[in-house]
Each structure stands twice: as C-alpha cells, then as structure tokens.
C-alpha cells in the first residue's frame, strides 16, 4: 500500500472541496488527475479499437466497451464534474463514429462519467473490488440512457429484448475487464482511505 | 661422435644395399610430415587471414548488398502475397460492378464502436458521389443501405440490423414479404399463408427505393407457419458473408436522388409491396 503524505491528504481534501457541489462524500481514491494527453491518447486508442474490432469481440451480442471503462476510470480519479465533462467528449466521439446515434452516446456517456465519479465517493467504493460491480452498473446505466436518448430522438431501438441481452453481456464483460485491470495494473488507482479517518 | 657417424653411415649403407628406406630416413620423413603439415596449415591460415583482411571491405559490401536484396525480396514477397490474397476479392468486386456499372466501389473502414447497430463505415462519402438511401451490394447479394453521409465517409445500415426493412420476393413462387434484420440474421415477414415456402428457397429484393428487383438477400433456413396467424414468417440466412467483407459496391439510386431529409431506418419507399 503506498505511503500517503500529508501533502497527499491535503490535496485530496482540497480537491474534494472543489468538487463539493456533486460530492457529498470524500473520494475513496486519491484524486490524481492523469496527464491530459495521456487520457486523450487512451481515448483515441479505445475508439479506434472499438470501431475496428467491436463485431469481432462480441460475446452473445455484447461487446466490451473500453470507452465506458476509460470514462469511469477518469471519473473515479478526478471526480464527478470532470467525469461528466470527459464523458461528454468521449460520447461525442462515439456519436461521430456511429453515424446514426444522433447525440445519444454523448449524454449517455456523460451520465456514465457523472455516475462513476459519484459512485467512487460513496461507501460503495471503500474497496477496490467494489468497482467491479460498479463498472457493470455504470455500463448498464449508460446503455439504458442511450436507449432513452434514441427514443427521445424519435429513433427507438428495435428488438428491445436483444438490446437488453446485449447490455447485460456488455456490463458483465466490462466488469470482467475491470477485475482484470485491478489485478494486473493496481497502479491505475491509488488510495488508502486515510483521508477519511 | 666418430661412433655415431660410423653408426649412421653403416645404417645408410645397409639400407642402400637392401634397397629399402633406412630407419633414419623413415624417422626423418615421418617427422617432416608432421612439421610440414603444421607449417602448411599455419601458412594457409596466415594466407587466408591476409586475404580475408584485404577482402574485408569487399565482403562487407557484398554482405550489405545481399541483406538489402533480401529485404527487397521479402517486401516484394509480402506485396505479392497480399495481392494474391486480394485477387478473389477484387474479382468479386469487379463482377459486382459489372452488374451495375454506375456503382461506386468502397472499402470498409470501420464498424459501430459499441456494436449496438449492425452497420459499417465506408471510405467514400458525399465527395465520392454517395448519398443517403443508396443500396450497397457485393457479388453475393445485398449488404445494406446508406443511412448517413459525411463528405469523406458514409455509414451503411446492414440488412441484418433490426431496423432494416427491405421489400423481398421468394424467387420460386414470387411471394412477397418484408425482409427484416434480427441483429444477426434476416426474418422474412408478412408472407401470405398461401405461399408454399420451403427451406432452401432463394429470397431476392423487390423493386424499392434503394435496390433494383432481383438482388439476392439469402436462402430460407426455417419456415414458421403458425396456425391461425394472418401471415407466415421464415428465417433467412444472408447471402453475403458479413464477417469477411472488405469491399462493397454502392449502387446508384434506381429512382433518382432522395430528398435531403433525415435518414430513414427502413426501406418502406418500395414501389411495390406485399399484398
């Protein structure tokens, strides 16, 4: 477990205070905004991978969503407001690539970022493993928001049962990827809850 | 010394008398053999080393040239292998384009990033003469319909997407229906109960906004004939292998350009439909 300095804790508290409008709890992880161009590069890679290979990594109708996981990770590390902003940007890119989704992914992904950031500031995130079902929940929320967004744009998703099935599998795959990432790259998140005590 | 000299002389005289090589000659000759061999080997090594040193620049040059040639040949081999792999694809596209000379050949560059929609992205857009509602085909049959166009790329809704609807005809009996995607296969719907559908029947397009009549959609793999229902349905295996697509042909619109409105997700502008 990394040693937290008083500077870390002070930064945590300052950051939390700055995000207070949407943060009613202290974050479970050390707020540590990644370098912006690292995030931009990761988003570009995730989008290219998904747009190139999504049909080939589909399992029972659902394909893992790297974009969702990236947005959720960024939101957990930075907070709800930044998560919302990054989600809107990532969703805009997905809408541009999808071509026929209007703005549904934009707002659905923004909502996912907001929810992930908020989730990481509740007792649900007291252990890192709680992020695994958290990723599944955020993925389901995003898919549901997307379906509602399509409905509001006058283009409802046909075959709703198929989409529900795909959404459940996508959330399961995202949860699995989150678990694998936490096991093999624990440095993606750092935090020891010291600031809560 | 006198005794040794006398001994040597006697041995030699005795050998000369018997006509055989003396023991001294054999000993000296044998010794000389090893020495000569060693000296020859050493001198050869020295000669080789000398010539190697003198030839080093030339050999290095030859080596570099051979390596460069090897790289060229490897690259050429890769290009030829790729060209060979593309030959069947190129032939198929050429045949498809021959069916519709006004068509535009386009490459597939992407898919829906979340795989929510069964759609593909083409490398040709409005600048390449693509417009919404144009049909997309290969030699095997229909692929889908253009639903969104930007200047440089266009999005095609595959015929297997749940939102895709294409007027269809069962070739054997001219029975009409609507081919609807099921996010993987195609379902032929609204076929009259009088139709005698069979597994293996070929389903083709009816005349519509995006497609001419007679383009292959697929073959029937299952017939659902529920009692008491107004219509019967059938499951159709698509004629196009969607997992192996790399190039397609975008057809010109059979009935002229569509009005520039929001893209529609079905092909209900058919000039003829099911009864």
List the helices and strands and how they pair.
The complex is a heterodimer of chains A (197) and B (275).
Chain A (H helix, E strand, L loop, with lengths): L5 H13 L17 H18 L12 H13 L1 H19 L5 H16 L11 H22 L7 H25 L13
Helix pairs in contact in A: 2-3, 3-4, 3-5, 4-5, 5-6, 6-7
Chain B lengths: L1 H17 L4 H77 L4 E8 L7 E4 L12 E3 L4 E8 L4 E5 L6 E6 L4 E7 L4 E7 L9 E4 L10 E9 L6 E8 L8 E4 L25
Overall description:
- The complex is a heterodimer of chains A (197) and B (275).
- By secondary structure, chain A is mostly helical.
- Chain A has helices at residues 6-18, 36-53, 66-78, 80-98, 104-119, 131-152, 160-184.
- Chain A has one domain: Arp2/3 complex 21 kDa subunit ARPC3 (Orthogonal Bundle).
- Chain A is built from 7 helices and no strands.
- In chain A, helix 3 (66-78) runs antiparallel to helix 4 (80-98).
- Residues 192-197 of chain A have low confidence and may be disordered.
- Chain B is α+β, with helices and mostly antiparallel strands and 275 residues long.
- Chain B folds into 2 domains: 1-99, no CATH class; 104-250, Thrombin, subunit H.
- Chain B has helices spanning 2-18, 23-99, and strands spanning 104-111, 119-122, 135-137, 142-149, 154-158, 165-170, 175-181, 186-192, 202-205, 216-224, 231-238, 247-250.
- In chain B, strand 3 (135-137) and strand 4 (142-149) form a beta hairpin.
- The chains are: A mainly alpha (197), B alpha+beta (275).
